[in-house]
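Lab channel / #folding
Pinned by the channel admin:
"Please post every new chain as: sequence first, then the structure tokens as a reply. Keep commentary short and put observations after the output so the thread stays searchable."

First post following the new format, from NK:
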Amino acid sequence: MTSARSFEAKKLKILGSLSLPDEEYTDLSPKGSVDVGIRGLIRDINRLQGLVTTSSCAGRISVFLEGARLSAEPSQDGGEREEEEEVGGELSSAQTRQFASTGGKGSGKWQFVSHDPVNIDQSRHSFHELFGLQPGNGSMKAGKNREMQLVRFHFEPMILHIMAESLKHAQPVLAAASSAGFRESGIQSLRCLDDSNACPIVAVRSSGLALESIIGYVEKGNSPEESTVRSLVSEEYLRMLVSIANERFQSNYARMDRFRTKLLALSSGSPSNLSSQKREWEDADRRRERKRAEGLQRREAARKAAKPNDKTPESEDEMPLDFPDAQG
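Reply from TO:
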């Protein structure tokens, strides 16, 4: 099977899954379904030739309770490291994504997750209640650090995995991602260099908007049932974190819109013909030289088009200078 036919078969399978009702659909993201805030972008990407989305997250606010430590070298985020496989099993086993399932031995659990900005409404309930925290006095009981379970507040911006038919099709995705502010984007799977049936996977992501703060810990009791998830911060501090995360959600949405606009512009016409898009990849010196040459060409064309007796300067840069005759 050729690379193009292999890609089309995978894309048809993925699009078939996307057409299922929400309650039946699952994808490769930890949530297992498509966030409402990113569905329009996914729809537009999947309409493009040579591209299809494999997993996504529109961004999220979360509160995560670490699992109990099981070894001397625990995971930093308290979550299990699970292998993420491309539909059809084509993704390299080296490509992994760390996330925590709800519950599970040593895995920790989500105290709160929202894929949309959180409505700050004091009349409903406190953020301590919303995040499953018991108020504390800001101090932590002494204990063994190795056994400490922390509670972390997170804001994470959009992450999107896109399968491309070829490196040529992946090129405009990377250009659009970088232009929109997703600076940590890159190609995660390059098996296509050795395997004609494999397809490159582009991860569109950015860490610049991410936010993390430790807000609590597990206060151990005589038994697990007697343990308390205790807050280390005030209600006002939690409210501030939520407000900052909501603002970053808006910045995240703006970047998503820029990415969509740029990708559609780069992919307009014939997506498989990217020769006209190579300027996106020129370095700063080459771009500066090209701009200078184009400016000189435009200036020369304007000069030739001007009437012979028209002495009006074409720009401030061309303002005539009169010098007195040199005295011998």
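NK: Residues 235-266 form the longest helix (32 residues).
TO: also worth noting, The helical segments are 3-18, 39-46, 127-130, 167-180, 235-266, 284-305.
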